[in-house]
Amino acid sequence: MALFTARGSNMREQPGADYERSDIDPAVVGWIAVGLALFVLTVPLVMPLVFPQSIYRGNTSVARPALGAAAPALEVDPSGNLRRQREADGEFAKTYGWIDRDRAIVRIPVARAVERLLQTGIPNWPSR
């Protein structure tokens, strides 16, 4: 059985006109259809054997909650929260405070830190 058979080989060829010189054998089309039908019928029978957890066994267990107890709360006013956070960050950058009181580490305002850096420079940093 040949996959393709030549048809129309006895037709007179004309310059500029062309046609399909071969067709697929109808028996091949039939075998493809039978194979596809077998595949469609056997896959639903084989899948539960491959994936046994997919078999429905009724509602035997209580469903787990979608979110755990440690899940963060949803924001009700995100733009307001962002505004308040930026205000707090701005105050934090403009004030003095303790980082670690026991080790005597303090926080200074950003503007003051820049002034001190310009005055003293960075150790071991090449200057211009």
Main attributes of the structure:
128 residues; 4 strands; elongated; 41% helix; 3 helices; mainly alpha
Helix fraction? 40-55%
Major pleated sheet: 2 strands, antiparallel
Question: Which percent range describes the beta-strand content?
Answer: 5-15%
Distance between the termini: 86 Å
Structural class: mainly alpha
Query: Can you count the beta strands?
Result: 4
> On the 0-100 scale, what is the average pLDDT?
82
Q: What strand order characterises the main sheet?
A: 1-2
Order of helices and strands: EEHHEEH
Enumerate how many helices there are, as a single number: 3
Shape: elongated
Structure summary:
By secondary structure, the chain is mostly helical. It is built from 3 helices and 4 strands; from the N terminus they run ββααββα. The relative contact order is 0.05.
How would you characterize this protein structure?
The protein is built from three helices and four strands. The protein starts with a strand and ends in an 8-residue tail after the last helix. Strand 3 and strand 4 form a beta hairpin. The chain is elongated and about 90 Å long. The strands form two sheets. The chain has a two-stranded antiparallel ribbon. It has a two-stranded antiparallel ribbon with strand order 3-4. Among the domains are: 23-53; 85-120, no CATH class. It has helices at residues 26-50, 78-94, 110-120; strands spanning 4-6, 22-24, 97-100, 105-107. Helices cover 41% and strands 10% of the residues. The mean pLDDT is 82. It is mainly α and 128 residues long.
